[in-house]
Amino acid sequence: MLKSLMAATAKEALEQELEEKENEKKKYLEDKTPPLHTSCMSIAELKALCEELHAKIDVVDEERYDIEAKVLHNTREIKDLNIKVVDLRGKFKRPSLRRVRVSADAILRSLLGSKHKVSLDLRANLKSVKKEDTEKEKTVEVSDWRKNVEAMSGMEGRKKMFDAAMGQNQ
């Protein structure tokens, strides 16, 4: 439905454009060609007028022919050049583009030029973490759970765990 509406509006626009061109052509001809009053002319004057009009028509026809010849020549030349372009595209194989890694400093140098010495050392701005601190946290008492299985079993074992947890919280 949308395509048919678009086609209908395009058709209306085309018809309107053709009417406008026709009206412009009529206005141009009315402005450029004065009306002929042949009723009061003699036969000799009419013959002279006809010869004059024929001479003007011949000049216009020659100009039209020259322009048509130039247009044909140019269209042939355009076609030939298009064929050459297509041939050249086929001859040269385009290389596949590869992703290039460029540092931030290189990008800034290319954008700002070599005059500006701007450094983007992003690693210097990062927080540093000491490895010793993380190793100490990891070495918290890790014992084998199998050693105390019998000692922690039953109610006495649970009481010991409860007392140990209460002792750590205080």
Automatic annotation (TrEMBL):
The keyword Transport does not apply. It comes from the Eukaryota. Gene3D superfamilies: 1.20.5.350, 6.10.250.180. Keywords: Acetylation, Actin-binding, Coiled coil, Muscle protein. GO terms for cellular component: troponin complex. Residues 4-63 form a coiled coil. GO terms for biological process: cardiac muscle contraction; skeletal muscle contraction. One of its GO terms (molecular function) is actin binding. The keyword Acetylation applies. Belongs to the troponin I family. Troponin I is the inhibitory subunit of troponin, the thin filament regulatory complex which confers calcium-sensitivity to striated muscle actomyosin ATPase activity. This is Troponin I type 1b (skeletal, slow).
